[in-house]
Amino acid sequence: MLESVRTPVVSPPRPAAPPRARARTMRTAGILSVIAFALSALGSWIPSFWGDEGASIMSAERPLPSLFVMLGNVDAVHGTYYLLLHFWIQAFGASPLSVRLPSALAVGAAVFGVVLLAERLASYRVAVLAGCVCVLLPRVTYMGEEARSYAMSAACAVWLTVLLVRALSRRERRWTVWIPYGVLLAVSAYIFLFTLLIVAAHAVTILTVTRSGRVLRAWAAAVLAAVVAAGPLIYWAFVERKQISYLQTADAVNAQTVGVDQWFGNIAMAILAWGLIAVGIVVAVRALLRARDRRRGEIADAMRSARGRATAFRAAGILTPRDPGLPSLFVVAATWAFIPMLILLAGDLVSAMYTVRYLSFAAPAVALLIGLVLALPARRWISVVGLVAVLAASVPTYVYQRTPFAKNESDWAQIADTIKTHAKPGDAVVFDQTSKPSRRPRLALHTYPAAFAGLADPTLAVPFQKNTWWWDQVHTIGAVAGKFRDIDRVWAVEYRLPDRPADTWGMSQLRALGYTVTAEYPGHRSVVYELSR
């Protein structure tokens, strides 16, 4: 079957693109990448930070010696991102817009590469459609407004694939053409370790175009060098593997997460996208059968009319490389989208390791698949209608992503606004410690510190900068009762689950110290109590 995919069916060797065509492609890629950046950045300051972003910010704000000590205990796989964010924050601050902006930039870089890749392996029309879909895809617009490494991993995956195609296009087959690929693969691993799963997809892609021992050895050497370079990270990831043990109890693998949340955000978008992908798979299977059972002359006979010629070319061409010696775009995108997913899902059967964000680096491949299918109809207006449908289906998720509580229902920004509005210097603040660490309202203190300026923190035992984990170590209120002696007003922030009363952590101890509740400020997932004596 791989052999049949490898043999060109329709297209002749492609001549070098003229300068005007290259300029048009670069211009289009630049325009779409700027749009992608702008859409990701727009409204990114609205959603409250949440647990994962809190880990990013608090890790990046540590002094470097403290950061390295922490990485020896937890989150080594995100260490490179934290280090980059450390210097970014020093230059531009830690506001929501600032810390999320690198992800928006990475999305722009990913879209730029998607357009170049699609034009190189298919056509300008496919490049425009795939680029537009990548701009709109809900997983892309989400990772573009999050202070995590996933957008960067997606950009790395795109440009790794660009370098793969570039290396395969070099007719001299020198091993040195694989050096940039190997270097970027090592960098990608340090950005996000699971990006290495793309290697399996690239292996299948290469086998569809060549069995040359020289090419395979050169690629394998580049991969091996990258894995060796990433060896320390792989070691620490294994040592710290219990960090994601919480996935054992989470229902991470189900139809909703894999079919909808992973890339598409809502049911309507998922139905549309999977429908288009299914069409592409059906057309690809038919092309495989046609390539196996018919000769070139028989295919040419089926292409007599102008409309038949366009339709047959696209149907056969979905698996036909634009250039001999290069893979088809369908093969590149399908292997990139689904092989890492299958590996991760299979691994999850042995030890929990799957969550939807881990496959963010495959989102550009999904955009390429959808763009390729949208380009199949001979009449362009059908492609435009399909793209409009993708736009309409993606808008509700995009709008929701830019609402105050969009990120895991976190309301830390709301807590900070309440404290900033009502508290005065000299007051004290205490936080509920009963929820799991990533949801604790105390993290609002570190993600929105300006709102808490001038307030006492009497329960603090060890600040996070001196701890080997993300969070502070704190005392109970009773253990530090003496610190409340000169404090007349205390703000108690309690965590609240949906449709349940707020927790009462520390409230009885505060009452025992003579405080009474004088005001209550309900929030989305919290309640702020004002207590005075």
Shape: elongated
Percent strand = 5-15%
Largest sheet: 4 strands, mixed
Low-confidence stretches: 1-13, 302-316
Structural class: mainly alpha
Alpha-carbon distance between the termini? 80 Å
Task: Indicate the percent of residues in helices.
Answer: 55-70%
What's the mean pLDDT score? 89
Give the topology string: H per helix, E per strand.
Answer: HHHHHHHHHHHHHHHHHHHHHEHEEEHEE
Rg over C-alpha atoms, rounded to the nearest angstrom: 27 Å
Count the beta strands. 6
- Strands ordered across the widest β-sheet: 1-4-6-5
The DSSP helix count reads 23
Structure description:
This protein has 533 residues and is mainly α. Helices cover 57% and strands 6% of the residues. The protein contains 23 helices and six strands. The protein has helices at 2-6, 19-41, 51-60, 64-71, 79-92, 96-121, 124-136, 138-143, 150-169, 179-191, 198-207, 213-229, 231-239, 255-261, 267-293, 296-301, 306-317, 329-350, 363-374, 380-401, 412-422, 443-447, 507-512, and strands at 428-431, 460-462, 473-474, 489-495, 516-522, 526-532. The strands form two sheets. The chain has a four-stranded mixed sheet. A two-stranded antiparallel sheet has the order 2-3. The chain is elongated.
